Amino acid sequence: MATFFSLLGLFFGALIAVVTLTCAIAWYEYANRDPQLLNRRLAPRRLAFVVALIVVETACLALTILLQPWGWLNRKEKPAVNGQPPIILLHGLFQSPACWLWLKHQLRRQGFSDLYAIALPPWKDVEILTERLAKRVDELRHATGLQQVHLIGHSMGGIIARNYLQIRGGEHKVDHCLLIATPNSGSKLAPFALSPLGKLLMPGSAFLQRLAAEPLPADARISTIYSRHDNMVLPYENARLDGARNIELAGSGHISLLFRRRVMQTIVDLLKEERP
What we know:
The chain is α/β, with parallel strands linked by helices.
């Protein structure tokens, strides 16, 4: 029992260290950009905000990691023929489909029952993962008789969704594409990613330049939801996407956006929104 608690302590200690370090790097970046931040760094309210941000982000990160084995189970959801566009969920780097459990629960409560999460292993090539998405889209379109699906991508999952939309010919098969905390212009923390996919997220990478050079498809509605306190997308403005509907929030870290009530409500509102 003592060994178990020791390992648990090491686990949470490591997560706290990672979240604190990424928050510190972000603050360093923004303080160099805006020296006025130095004047408020020790204010009690500011310190309380930072501590709360780190605690909540660590808790959310721990939850998604502990749930990962659930996401590894190879469960093939059967398509539901209910007239609703299927919703495909694309998780981020080093996550698993289990990170969507809370969002799926909330969406079902709002009447969205046709939900499918795709496993995106971090050791696979981005084109292989995009092909996996393309295959699932066509399977669901064939099974339901509907022409379009919705895509919701978090972090790297959003980049794969864009690759499918902009380069791999998926523009006519997607009704609404929602990007959550997606580093559309890369992140300065990408060099720390222990995956070939991480190299693609380097600001100015050839892959991101190719994406940026392709116009956003006119037929697909694209929205981004991001936080100005994201500890992984650095700077946070890199989550914006020109030509998309950009929705900026505050007070949430990279993973905690997946659990925030306002994000859930925004997603529901966007999915229920009818085309003009």
